[in-house]
């Protein structure tokens, strides 16, 4: 294994950071790695908001399902899918008028543009995470940033065609301490050949057997097995209902379906 | 710069590959790197389809906006957001019955779950791209895989709660040949501090000045500036209209709004 492969294989989500700031040089390395990431048509359909305001970090603990370590992370970056910059550039450059004069359709950002922006944002985020790891800086993704859309929109002054797809916390590993690396499902379950192979009894047995992957050591009522416990803890948990509501609200606004009281 | 940072900084999209297969060892390194990627709740909400069938690779040239190099790539991986595996596991484990008996809501995958699955899939994809690069294997993302949803669904037998978010081609760099690295917008445009800063005249001027980033050497009618040219080439081009239609169709099916003739 080369150094990069080792970096990819040894990284694990870090939620407790050394009490040591990230230097300006390290910060720039992390951001430069993000900026070097592949992007659709080289358009950079994303933005990064660096969160330096401690009060905002503390609000995020609350809006992101109580993950208290966010407030203690020396570097916190919010990755946005961003079609606003190009939309505004098009408008500024007179594209709607050009379309009008030449019988062309003026297409504003739709669902597909949201997805493309998310691609760019996430690919950039992962580059930053890997650069950080290579510098001895751990990181943790916070998917909960997709909850409470309206509050995040207000806090970060997000315009219509941006979408907060990932929050990432970064900090040095506490000296001599590294969380144990969690296992993964076997490759034959995740990697398919030529066509999608639906999970069968054998896969379900493996998933049930691999409960430790999800830290399920014992089953508690009303759950009677690993599937039920994971549902209660994840897809059926209050944060998932909130994320569902919030993402619907964000997409509605993106598509211009929002009630009038929101700009 | 350490070796990993160099790998991140020197990678560029590769669309012409050496006439040399990817070894089994290299293939496993690439897939293992994907599998090691961070994933929400360690649930691995993605699947990878390795496309080995030459006829399918050739179909993809057509369905992905005529990118002929897809057919010549020694390794082609399709990354899917995948909530199907967990959904089926939940059903198999009797979650709907448990919900019913305990007055809980049985929540099937929604938009938020699609987004979470896309996060996992893209983070895994980028890990694989970086591992490949560290082995001297170039790669190229094909966002056009989001077009022609119905055809891709049929080719890959995609069940309802999967979404093809990224296709990646991999192959060795042709000997002694490396495409020049394309520049990026300046960091101050992409990175914001604490709040989103909308692009202004100054940003638009920089974007117009940076036309070479998007290989705009001259402007052709009806475009009169870089913004208009990029709109015609990207957001207003036929492939973008197709992607818009296709993603709407995929999301409709995900949400169960599909017409009856599709399973």
TrEMBL record, chains A, B:
Residues 9-172 form the Nitroreductase domain. Pfam families: Nitroreductase. One of its GO terms (molecular function) is oxidoreductase activity. The keyword Flavoprotein applies. Keywords: Flavoprotein, FMN, Oxidoreductase. Gene3D superfamilies: NADH Oxidase. PANTHER family: OXYGEN-INSENSITIVE NADPH NITROREDUCTASE (PTHR43425:SF2). Belongs to the flavin oxidoreductase frp family. This is Nitroreductase. It comes from Dethiosulfovibrio peptidovorans DSM 11002.
């Amino acid at each position: 294994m080369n150094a990069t492969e080792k970096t990819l294989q040894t990284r694990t989500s870090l939620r407790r950071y050394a009490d040591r700031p990230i230097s300006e040089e390290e910060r720039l390395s992390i951001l430069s790695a993000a900026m070097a990431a592949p992007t659709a048509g080289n358009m950079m359909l994303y933005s990064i908001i660096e969160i330096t305001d401690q009060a905002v970090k503390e609000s995020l603990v609350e809006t992101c399902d109580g993950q208290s370590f966010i407030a203690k992370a020396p570097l916190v970056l919010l990755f946005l899918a961003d079609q606003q910059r190009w939309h505004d550039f098009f408008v500024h450059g007179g594209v709607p008028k050009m379309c009008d004069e030449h019988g062309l359709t003026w297409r504003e950002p739709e669902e597909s543009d949201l997805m493309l922006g998310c691609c760019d944002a996430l690919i950039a985020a992962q580059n930053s995470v890997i650069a950080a790891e290579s510098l001895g800086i751990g990181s943790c993704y916070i998917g909960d940033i997709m909850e409470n859309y309206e509050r995040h929109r207000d806090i970060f002054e997000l315009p219509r065609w941006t979408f907060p797809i990932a929050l990432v916390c970064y900090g040095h590993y506490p000296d001599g301490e590294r969380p144990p690396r969690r296992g993964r499902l076997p490759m034959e379950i995740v990697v398919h050949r030529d066509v999608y192979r639906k999970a069968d009894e054998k896969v379900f047995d493996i998933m049930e057997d691999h409960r430790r992957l999800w830290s399920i050591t014992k089953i508690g009522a009303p759950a009677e097995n690993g599937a039920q416990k994971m549902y209660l803890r994840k897809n059926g948990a209050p944060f998932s209902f909130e994320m569902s509501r919030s993402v619907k609200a964000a997409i509605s606004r993106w598509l211009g379906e929002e009630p009038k009281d929101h700009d």
